[in-house]
Amino acid sequence: MTLLQRDDCHLCDLALEVLAAARAPEFESVFIDDDAALEARYGIRVPVLRDEPSGRELDWPFDAEAVRCFVTPPAADAPSC
């Protein structure tokens, strides 16, 4: 799991708080400021939570429940989030 963010980003700080509240599994923080490719792709979309293996992304704004649904694959017999 990767959190794409910027330096000095208030929304990114809020996203970190939400991830903590959701008890999200460990994730890598990637700052897009000095990477032209990431800057072009994500620009003002950050913060974005990205699942690298699947390529799925969760754009801000998200809450703890959305994060839990994003990081926990649904069981076959459970309703999807």
From TrEMBL:
<dbReference type="InterPro" id="IPR008554">
    <property type="entry name" value="Glutaredoxin-like"/>
</dbReference>
<protein>
    <submittedName>
        <fullName>Glutaredoxin</fullName>
    </submittedName>
</protein>
<dbReference type="Pfam" id="PF05768">
    <property type="entry name" value="Glrx-like"/>
</dbReference>
<dbReference type="InterPro" id="IPR036249">
    <property type="entry name" value="Thioredoxin-like_sf"/>
</dbReference>
